[in-house]
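Lab notebook, bench 4. Continuing the backlog of folding jobs that were queued last week. Each job is logged with the same field layout so the records can be merged later without manual cleanup. Today's entry covers Inner membrane-spanning protein YciB, a 203-residue chain. Filled in by technician R.K.

JOB TYPE: sequence-to-structure
TARGET: Inner membrane-spanning protein YciB
LENGTH: 203
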Amino acid sequence: MDERKPVAPALKAALDFGPLLVFFAAFFLFKDHPVTLWGESYGGFVLATAIFVPVLVVAMAALWALTGRLAPMQIATLVLVVVFGGLSIWFNDPRFFKMKPTLIYLLFAGLLGFGLLRGKPWLQLVMDGAIPMAPEGWVILTKRLVAFFVFLAIANETIWRLFSDTVWVNFKTFGLPVLLMGFFAAQAPLFSRFSPEEGKKED
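JOB STATUS: finished
OUTPUT FIELD FOLLOWS
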């Protein structure tokens, strides 16, 4: 089997977060400078989306070429970005792209919740290599993550419906990543409690 070398952390971070930063920069570049094409005026949000979608596709293709795989969550995100980003561009309507995070988080929550009902914490299959943990820990983490994804979906719907494009773009670019990192940082006691090393100590 062809074993690929791990991607350098800086390069992986650039591929993961670079497209989002490109979207952020493009939005503020075109926010007050709409562009007219074929008689249709396109605002900063749709123009930024039109730039973001192909940049994300290239970044995911590069990540796949370097690692030989994409996580299921990355694939689902890419598909929804292409579909809903394409709809926003085609109909010149930012609402499709703004709804995309809501659908992603509800999809993840639904899939993880369905796995729990079947007695299979599917999150373990995706992240076990990154976070070694006993099965009981994975059940607890999955339940918490389902609730957290539902919270993020509600937060996204609230912000895009009640606030300006600028507020939503800032929330999408910085708020959501910070919330996700904060969630996993807050699970440190859980990781420690159910780590394989901790289990060996108790034995």
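OBSERVATION: The two ends are 37 Å apart (CA to CA).
SIGNED: R.K.
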